[in-house]
Amino acid sequence: MKKKEMANPRDAYGETLLELGGKHPNIVVLDADLSKSTKTILFAKKYPDRFFEMGIAEANMISAAAGLASCGKIPFASTFAVFATGRVYDQIRIDVAYSEANVKIFATHGGISVGKDGASHQMIEDLTLMRVLPNMTVLAPSDATQTRRLVELMATTKGPMYARIGRANAPLLYTKEDLKDIEIGKGLITRDGSDASIIACGTMVDQAVDAQEQLAKEGISARVVDMHTIKPLDEKLVLRCKRDTNAMVTVEEHSIIGGLGGAVSEVLAENGSSVPFKRIGVQDVFCESGEPEELFDKYELSTSYIIKTVKKLLK
Amino acid sequence: MLYRAKSGHPGGSLSAVEAIVALYFHHMNHDPKNPNDPNRDRFVLSKGHAAPALYAALAECGYFDVEELSHLRQINCMLQGHPVCTHIPGVEASTGSLGHGLSFAIGIALAGKLDKRNYRVYVMVGDGETNEGQIWEAASSAAHYKLDNLTALIDRNFLQIDGNTEDVLRLESVRDRWSSFGWHVIEVDGHDIEEIIDALLSASEQKNQPTMIILNTVKGKGVSFMENNIDFHGVPPNEMEYKLAMKELEIAQKALEATL
Question: How much is the pTM?
Answer without folding.
Answer: 0.97
